[in-house]
Fold these 4 entries.
Entry 1:
Amino acid sequence: MVIAAFCKTGMKMTKPLQRMGIGILAICLLAPTTGVTGQTNSAQAVRVGLVSNEWQRLLMVSRIELALLELPAHFKQGLDQAKSQGLPISPEVEVALKAAADEVFGAAALQGAALSHLEASLSPSQLRDWLAFYQSPLGQKMAAADERAASPDFLRSVMDRAPRLMETVSRDTGRLALLQSWLDATGAVEQSTNMALHSQLALEWGLVSTLPRTAGMPTFDELKSYINERRFVVKAHLAQLALLHSAAAYQDFSNEDIRQMLQRANSPAGQALYVNFNRKMHRTLEALVEKVGLTAGRRLASHPT
């Protein structure tokens, strides 16, 4: 178990969890507003038409809502991935962890937080500016590309084609610079790194919390500090993956399209959404990570094996 490795080797992580820390939630690369969903664009449009609250409308058209709805699924995907790579975990603990993810990352709580953070980050005029953008041809094109590129199949395709994609991207230094500037302006790599580390911490703390407390067990803060020591490695990996991912996602966009996206990202409205809003959501998710473990432990205690 992870906790055994922790106690015996000074928090040495198992290889399955090391890989999961980089892989899980890495599909949220392009921006804070991408998510994996089974909804079609037409179904999304119908739902948008039924929403009267403009803040809620922005959550939907920007795909923020979809990303939040998928958080439990990403957690479970990471757990399944770790299991497939050799992580020993009992069925009872697995059930408790997955149920805890559903409870803690439930749509109602996260959507409420997201709405509150949007209102605190954007002015009414910036809200209207973003809604108008998503009704424009470029806004609709970007939303469709982001949604398509957020699928696990798309990410796997990018990773399979990585050497070829890097060779292609490297030939056009001007476009490469535009894409890198876009990633910098949106804070995409930092956000992806935060999400990967959050998910890894949630899973490891969840596993620790389902075990009886004994001497030498790590505290939440100790485990968090240890996992954060890998931030540089994780961020370096995701930085390269994000560049390839954006190149593939926006391959049909002209350089002028990307310049316009970059200009918007660097505008006050862009920074309010991409940076200010996401910093607030980062703090919310960070607080919920500890709760996942506590909830899993409570569930397991109420249904002892």
Entry 2:
Amino acid sequence: MSQASTSAFGSDAVFGAGVATRERLAYLHYFRGLTMLQIMIMHAGRGFMLRGYDEPVAASNPVFIANDILFHNTTLYFTLISGIFYSRSLSKQPVTDFYKGRLRNIAAPYVVMTVLFTTLVFFLSANGAPDGISIGSFARTLGYNLLWGEAQVVYWYIPVVLLLYALSPVLHALLASRFRNLLLASAIILPMLFSRTGTEVTLSTILYFTGAYIIGLYLGRDIEGRLTDVSRYAWLLGLLAVAATATLVVLNARDIDYWGPTSLRESVYYVQKLSLGLLLMLWVWRFSGGLPPGPARLLSLFGSYAFGLYFLHGFVFRRFIGFSADIASSPDSNWDLVLGGAITFLLGTATCFAVIFVLRWVLGRYSRLVVGA
């Protein structure tokens, strides 16, 4: 397999690839695109409601609740796909080649983008004013951002997935051993006890996403056969998804969350997103070949450029929030909240694609360090 075929986020394993276009499964490529689309809708809506007005929109607002319930934690879908592709393809590489590939194709762009945004924010902030510039302070900020994924609000996922890849050979081997059932049970139970802690990289967050990754690894060992098995229980997944969604409505409406150290919402989100993720995967598996050209091209576009979109969209969306608020000016109108999020999403997404295409044109093959190849 050529280096070019595995170098981009659109075709790299952080977001569930790592195989050449001619080899990849079309339905997983579409699923990756659908996942990226949902994440961007989530952040456009939430970002607008948190930053568009003088005061953040209340978390009890029905539009805020709907946005969270529909799209929060869809990053778990990326984790599922990444596990699938490791088992199906990347596990066949020598371990040293696999690790070199993750450093080149994931860690290197992450470092470049973290340095870029850390430098930009540091020297434009009050802390970085000319009379307050300190190389030591900058170095500490950069080191912190690299370790914990703090350069942009969505970068937390990269340290998590890099750790998952470091563990991949061991987890993959365990799934072929007598410990398989214990590992799969842990992948279901532990994330419901150890909650994701927002955008902070903690042991709980790592365990939360490790569960989905293990399930992806299990599916990827025989993806067609196991999707066939899963399809027999689609009705049960549907019931779980509906029950979890209804529970989330109640938990959000009544402002119920923590039970001791465990976030009940994050526990239910885990059940909801795993159920919905498997149902969406089944849907694209069965029907992706019959998608109309327009939706197929759209999902393929988001899937192919998931790397650049993920790294850019948070920063770019924030540039349009003020403009969106000028048009959708009433925080008391739910229609304005929807409109403001939609404007932020459309303008921000178009800008992200424009930046990606320009960088690819200007940088050529070196664009992989920023937006993928």
Entry 3:
Amino acid sequence: MHPPQQQPQQWPPAPPQPYGQPTQHMQPPPGQHRPPTKSGVGRGLAVAGGVVLALAVIGGLLKLTGGEDETAASPSASASPTAGAERVVAAEPTRSQQRAYLAALKEIDPGLTVNPTRVMRRAGRVCDRLLNEPDGLPKYTVLELSGGNATIDEDQAKQVIDAVAAWCRPA
């Protein structure tokens, strides 16, 4: 008689499995089949279908809510004109008024004048608010001008409003 043959040891040894559970290297017994796995194409179609469904849900939600993201709305987008009143349109400042305004902002905080195009765009919104909805203007100005290269407080905002008021007139 020959001694029983031993299985070669695996390295690292396989973790013990509960009784009756096949280990990873064992095949299921004959007559039992594994559930079919999705092929690469099937999996890709399932992912694509999930993406389309998610986009449809998001689109529907945006349509129901009006499509505006309130957290990303600028302060000027949240401003609403008074009921029944027509908005006054502001006149564009002249080049000399723009230079004077930029100089005034530089005195308040040099960071406010880093991008002159942005400075004048923001000034136009402050002017529009000054002409149409002056209530809460200092807080609005803090929100409008803070961020990027500068952060201002309400006292500085009042100085900015005075600088805007020097040239802000109806068109």
Entry 4:
Amino acid sequence: MKKIFNFSFVCMMIALSSCMFGLSSCGDDKDDAEGTDGIHNGTWLVTHIKTTEDGQTLETDITPALGITYRLTLKNDSFEFYFKDEEESYTESGKWSYSDNILTLNSEDSGTEHIQVLSWTDTKLVTREEDEEDITEMTFTKQ
């Protein structure tokens, strides 16, 4: 059981790293629309992660008992992403926008990231990101 949890944790860390740092776009970010109306504003916590790599799928519920926090706070045109586990924590901030089922996060530290939105209601946000190695779906719940 311990090995499965460690593998799960490593997969989550890889997924988060690729989510925050791996996807950058080229071009003039000033052309992107920034912010959105207040419908999606608020604090969103990741409550579930599903990662598929090499045909194997791993799903993990993120609960306070794990000691891991993924938090995305959206305000009019600004965002803050906060991550914390037993070993480290970091915060990233910048501008955000949402259009055509794409959530765009633009940070001075890691550039622009475009995240596919599978569904977004008043209380639940489900995103999907793909790269050459894996597919990651994250479920956020509004606090």
